[in-house]
Amino acid sequence: MGGDSILTIGRLCVASLLVMVVAVGGVHSSSAGQPVAAVAVEAEPFTTPAIDAHQPSASAETPTLPEKRKTKVPILVYHHIRLTADGSRGLRRMTVTAEVFDQQMKFLQDSGYHVITFSDLADYFEQGRELPTLPVILTFDDGWVTQYENALPFLSKYHFPATFFVVTDYIGHRGFFSWPQLQTLITDGMKIGSHSRSHPRLAKIADPAQLWDQIYNSKVTLESQLEVPVAEFAYPYGSYNTAAVEMVKAAGYRVGRGCCTGVAHTSTDVLALRAIMAPNDLTKFQKYLEAH
Ligand SMILES: [Zn+2]
Ligand 1 is a single-atom ion; what residues have CB below 5 A from it? Predict the structure, then answer.
């Protein structure tokens, strides 16, 4: 598609009732110094991706695992962490306020949850290394600078590691992480994963070369700029198919994360893990975790 890709992405977003206003200038700052307008807003789908129809038995190419392991680990997905939950409906839906985020992290700490990393989960699947009780994984999508400004201080406060899935074409643009900020995240113990080059729906890409560009070249960019291995990939919109999953594997990722379909995982899901959206409400957050 080449130069048509941006238009195509736009059409896809509109067609799926997603709001995606990529900030190309026009980002204004509130009195709190927070971008509030013209920020990109996305909504991850709540539908089950097509790949979910493929049961683990279909993955004959999975390396020999000692056994098929199962576990329930809530993988929480955050987008914007802002001081207030104002703005458009789409933006509000993608926002957890800093105050609520602090409450949620405190709840995890006070309730005996253990924040683990994707490496811990992969070690459990691949090597049988035991997980702690009440494991949970924290993730942040798209590379919004609000995460750096308003989530990182609390992650540091509670000593919780998180994985930030960034879109490499967005890095350095207004409203998004800069490369130095990504370096700071790493220094502070955070993990950086790829969320593709330009945030398309991978299941809609038929051209293997384009798919490879999104999946592999984003990894190369991150690894060359940050000088750390990048082993995690999050599918934009939770959209993937067999070809995308196989390419994530071929590109050298250890873990792939979908979105919004639950907390149960098996060792054959490691390249398409389920996740849940974090609500902007402590009580809902508690009930959601305790339900699992
Ligand atoms: Zn995204």
Answer: 141-142, 236
Q: How far, in Å, is the centroid of ligand 1 from the Cα of 47?
A: 15
Query: In this predicted structure, what is the pLDDT of residue 261?
Result: 81
From the number of C-beta atoms within 10 Å of its C-beta (0-12, 13-18, 19+), residue 73 rates as buried
For the chain, the domains span 2-23+70-291
Interval 187-219: pLDDT, tens:
999 999 999 999 999 999 999 999 999 999 999
pLDDT on residue 207: 97
CA of 140 to the centre of ligand 1 (A): 9
Q: Is the CA virtual torsion 198, 249, 289, 54 positive or negative?
A: positive
Q: Which residues are CB-neighbours of 208 under 8 A, at least 6 positions away? A: 243, 247
CA of 201 to the centre of ligand 1 (A): 10
pLDDT at 38: 35
Which CATH superfamily groups domain 2-23+70-291? Glycoside hydrolase/deacetylase (3.20.20.370)
Cα 67 to ligand 1 centre (Å): 32
**Separation of CA 195 and ligand 1 centre (Å):** 7
pTM of the model: 0.79
**Is residue 113 predicted with pLDDT exceeding 60?**
yes
HSE-CB at 232 with a 13 A cutoff on CA atoms is: 24
* Residue 67 confidence (pLDDT): 66
40 Cα–ligand 1 center, Å: 10
